[in-house]
C-alpha cells in the first residue's frame, strides 16, 4: 500500500482509541453502563451496531470464497437466517427488552427455579457460549484478517520467532496482535459505549470500501464481450456457480442441503442470542428493540451481500487457479483498488475485525462477570470492582482466542461446526419462551444430546469428504434425535408451574396457548396481541426480504423477468407489511 493508504488506516485506529477514552467515565460506573450502555441506545445505533459486528473481517472473505467455490445458492447457508431473524423481530425482540436482564444467560434465573440443575446450566453456558463459541468466532475473524493482510500487504508467512505455547510468530501475526491490542484497549476502557460508536464508523467505512470494489470489478468485467462471455472463458468455470438454487428436479445432496437451510437451519437463530440480545437489552424501550432488529435485518441481508458475491464470482475470471477460494476477496482488492481507496477498504476490513473483536470481548466478559464471578465467587463487591475484573476477563479471552486461531484453517468449517450444535438446541430455545413446561432439564438434555450426537457424526460417523459436504445431514440427524429426547424429559419433569415460572409470566405476560394455563390460574391477561399478528408479520416481512435479495441478484446477472417478478412481490409485501405493523403493538 502507498503511504496515503496507511494514513487512512492510522486515522481509523486513532479515532477508535479516542472514542474509548471519551466514554471511559460512563463505563466505570458499573456493569449496566459497561455492558449495556445504561440501556440508553436508540434503535438506529443499536441496529447498526449489530450489523457492524456481523460484518467482521471473515464475512466478505467467507462469502466471496463460498460463492466462487460452490455457487451463489450456497449463500442460503446464511441467507436462510432471514426467516429466523425476522422471527426475532416479531416474536422475541420486545420480550428480551421487557425482561430487563443483563445477559441472555441471566434469563435462566428469571425463567426457571433456582435449583442445582439451573445453576449448573448457567455455569456451563458461561463457558460454552462465552468462551468456547466466542473464541471460535474470534479465531475465524482473526484467520480471515490474516488472509487479507498476507495477500493485500504482501506480508511474509515465514516465522520471525518461536514462542513457547504459541509457536511461530509471523509478521502478519504480529500486526494482528498489535491491532487486536488496540481493540482490547478501547473496549476495556469504554465498554459498550465505545463499541457501538466505533461501530458507526466501521459500518460506513465497510460499506464504502466493499461497494467501490464491487463497482470497479463489475464495470471492468462487463466491458467488451460482457460479463457472461468473460466468465465462460475462464478455465474451470461452471455455470452452476451462478444459480440461486440447485436443480430441484434432482433430489441429490445439494438439493437436500438447500432445503435444510430453507426450512430448518435458521431455527437456532430465531430467539436471538449473544451480542444481538445484548444490543436489544441496551435499547431505550421495547419499541426501539423491535426497530433495531428490523433495521439490522435490512442492512444485513439487503444492503451488504451482493458486493461480496459479485467480487467472488468475478474473481473466477481474474484468478482462475486460486488454491484457496477464501483468498479471492483480498486478491481482488490488490488488483482493483487504487491508492487511497485501497487504504479505505483495508481500513474497513480492519474496522470490521476490531468491531467484531471488541463486541465479542465485551459480550463474553459480561457472561464471565454477571453469570459466574459475581453470583458464585464474589457477590458483594462494589460496582467499580466488577468493571475492573471485566477488563481482566477481556484480556484472558483474547489469549484463548489467539490460541484457537493457530489451530483453525478454514472459516466455513468453523461455522458449520458451530451450526451443528446450535441447530440441535434451537427448538428448545424457542419453546422456553412460549411453553411454561420447559425447564432446566429440557435445555440440559438438548445440549448434551447435541454435543454427543454432533461430535459423533462430525468426527467419526458422517465426516465431510472431498466429494461431499454432509453438514445438512448431520444437522437433521442431530435435531431429530435431540428434539424428542428433550420434549420427553420436559413432560416427565414439569407437571405443575413453579413459583418462578408464575413470577416470570406475571412480569412478561406472554400470549399464546403455551401460557394459557398460567393466564387462567393467575387471572393476569397476556400483554401481547394474538400470535397470529406476529406470525403474519413474520411471514410477510420474510417474503419481502427474500424478494429484494433475489431480485437484486437477478438484476445484476441480467435475468430481467425474474427481477421484475421479485419487484412485484416486494411492492405487494410492502403494502401488506405496512398495514400489519400499524396494527402491531409497539409500546415503549
Task: Please give the structural blueprint.
Elements: H1 3-22, H2 24-27, H3 31-36, H4 43-54, H5 58-69, H6 76-79, H7 81-99, H8 107-111, H9 116-152, E1 161-163, E2 167-169, H10 171-221, H11 227-233, H12 253-263, H13 274-281, H14 286-303, H15 305-318, H16 328-336, H17 341-377, H18 383-405, H19 411-434, H20 440-461, H21 471-493, H22 499-508, H23 516-522, H24 531-556, H25 560-582
Antiparallel strand pairs: 1-2
Helix pairs in contact: 1-10, 1-17, 4-10, 4-13, 4-14, 5-9, 5-15, 7-14, 7-24, 9-16, 9-17, 9-18, 9-19, 10-15, 10-17, 10-18, 12-21, 13-14, 15-16, 17-18, 19-20, 19-21, 20-21, 24-25
Mind telling me the C-alpha Rg? Answer: 24 Å
Number of DSSP strand runs: 2
**Helix and strand sequence:** HHHHHHHHHEEHHHHHHHHHHHHHHHH
**N-C termini distance:** 49 Å
Mean pLDDT: 88
Q: How are the strands ordered across the major sheet? A: 1-2
Describe the fold and architecture.
The protein is built from 25 helices and 2 strands. The protein has helices spanning 3-22, 24-27, 31-36, 43-54, 58-69, 76-79, 81-99, 107-111, 116-152, 171-221, 227-233, 253-263, 274-281, 286-303, 305-318, 328-336, 341-377, 383-405, 411-434, 440-461, 471-493, 499-508, 516-522, 531-556, 560-582, and strands spanning 161-163, 167-169. Strands 1-2 form a two-stranded antiparallel sheet.
